Recover the amino acids of this structure.
């Protein structure tokens, strides 16, 4: 019972995380560019982006933790997955991609977004640089999410590596 | 050369290419 609840939480948190990732990339980034052009961006950066980032970074952590717990407790083995051993290799590729994405969220996106949104002090040059790093990390995660979701789904329904 | 991650479609195509590469590796090298 505990494993199905964990798996349910993993999928639930994962949908929240990746849904917000796609919101940032497909909606907020182009929306902010258009809003900056007519001077209406202040509300987005003050009220929308911080809330979206709050759900984004914590759902990312919950996704990873519930995934790691599942790997360890389901008999697959966290070590087997990360070492791509035998039948654990398929989910292991997904786990590696998800782990790189979690790193990007907490080490590259969030600290740099704090500068961009003015939550920590930064001059204009530092803000511009932080914006570029956060943007590329977010785009990298969007790119990685494509194979990550494939390998997560494949591991349960269509095992590739045996 | 332009960074493909600067465009959303470039990002999606890069993800699909990465998926194919990882799939081929997993099928051929991880069995």
């Amino acid at each position: 019972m505990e494993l199905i609840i964990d798996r349910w939480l993993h999928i639930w948190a994962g949908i929240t995380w990746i849904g917000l990732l796609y919101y940032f990339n497909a909606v907020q980034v182009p929306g902010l560019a258009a809003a900056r052009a007519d001077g209406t961006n202040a509300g987005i950066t003050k009220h929308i982006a911080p809330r979206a980032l709050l759900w984004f970074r914590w759902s990312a952590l919950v996704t990873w933790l519930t995934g790691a717990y599942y790997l360890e407790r389901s008999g697959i083995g966290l070590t087997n997955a990360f070492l791509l051993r035998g039948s654990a290799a398929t989910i292991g590729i997904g786990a590696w991609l998800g782990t790189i994405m979690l790193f990007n969220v907490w080490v590259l996106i969030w600290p740099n977004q704090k500068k961009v949104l003015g939550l920590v002090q930064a001059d204009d040059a530092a803000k511009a640089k932080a914006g570029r790093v956060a943007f590329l990390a977010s785009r990298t995660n969007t790119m990685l999410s494509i194979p990550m979701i494939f390998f997560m789904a494949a591991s349960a329904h269509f095992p590739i590596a045996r | 050369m332009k960074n493909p991650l600067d465009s959303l479609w470039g990002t999606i195509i890069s993800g699909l290419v990465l998926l194919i590469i990882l799939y081929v590796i997993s099928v051929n090298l991880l069995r």
Q: What stands out?
A: The radius of gyration of chain A is 18 Å.
